Amino acid sequence: MKTIVLLALVGLGAQLVDGSLGMAYGVTSTTLLLAIGTNPAAASATVHLAEIGTTLASGVAHWRFGNVDWKVVAKIGLPGAIGAFAGATVLSHLSTEVAAPVMALILLALGLYLLIRFTLRGIDRRNLGKPVRKRFLAPLGLVAGFVDATGGGGWGPVGTPALLASGRMEPRKVIGSIDTSEFLVALAASLGFLFALGNQGIDFAWVAALLIGGLIAAPIAAWLVRHVPPRLLGSLVGGMIVLTNTRTLLRSDWIDAPDATRYACYALIYVVWAAAVAWSFREYRKDGARETADALAAEAARLAETDAPGDATRADGATVTAGRPSAPTD
User: Where is region (Disordered) located (predicted)?
Assistant: First the structure.
């Protein structure tokens, strides 16, 4: 029962993160399932089955808040589904001894990306509003879908930054469109796992727990996407994923590091993680101060323009220009 409650809380927290950042539901949930000893293919299958419900709810919520570009959803979602089905099939045919370190490596890379991306980088708005080309979206969807299924997550960490980097969509529409198209990816990956594995190793009570937590969080996350500081949240989540998957790798048969080495690595990760979170918070405060100053300057300029002396007409018919009357008109 404790495991079920824990998974429900993980589903809730993961969906809050995913709905706010446009990524990390699968990465967060799969990382936890691996940490408690779940078979890699079964962990990915469990998460993707839960995501069928959470992504549907998240998509509806984002649509109601006007965060979805349906053309982008179609152009990236269908190739993503193809990539996800292929990835599920590949992962299902790997042995546990090989699959666990492989998945941990993928998750570690995604965690590092999250940590670095949200700690150091902002959003390029120079091309905002320009259409996103299909020849860019289709390959992106194919790769992101494959990584998502083989790594137990990755649709958001691959797709969201790529769309943000293009600078052609508002951040909230990037997140809403990625979350909505993920329904197709989750459905295709789940079908791939069920065809390859049947229900072997899949605990449907765990699926239900993750689903319930995610359903509760989905509408909250769609609202929070306008208010949560992404830099800070991304750094927090990225560090957690890096730490957990480093632990999995160091304890795997591939490395089997001694205790002293493992604890030294953990200490280093904690120090870097704390520094990244502190830096993100500092930059978030600086960004907020800059935005406030820019808004005040724009408002001051608008008021100055409104209050500037212009042409007016006196009662005797003379025109006043910049405070200097001309001769009265007949």
Answer: 307-330
As a whole number of angstroms, the longest Cα–Cα distance in the chain is 101
Tens digit of each residue's pLDDT (9 = 90 or more) over 295-311: 778 778 878 777 655 54
Would you place residue 99 in the very low, low, confident or very high pLDDT band (cuts 50, 70, 90)? Answer: low
Residue extents of the structural domains in the chain: 2-291
Instruction: Encode 141-187 in three state secondary structure.
Output: HHHHHHHHHHHCCCHHHHHHHHHHHHCCCCHHHHHHHHHHHHHHHHH
DSSP secondary structure, 202-261, as one string: --HHHHHHHHHHHHHHHHHHHHHTTTS-HHHHHHHHHHHHHHHHHHHHHTSTTT---HHH
Given a contact cutoff of 8 angstroms between Cβ atoms, the answer to whether 284 and 296 are in contact is no
* Residues sharing a CB contact under 8 Å with residue 148, sequence separation 6 or more, in sequence order: 26, 80, 83, 84, 87, 154, 155, 158, 185, 189
Has this prediction a pTM greater than 0.90? no
Q: pLDDT of 202-230, one tens digit each? A: 677 878 887 787 777 767 766 665 666 66
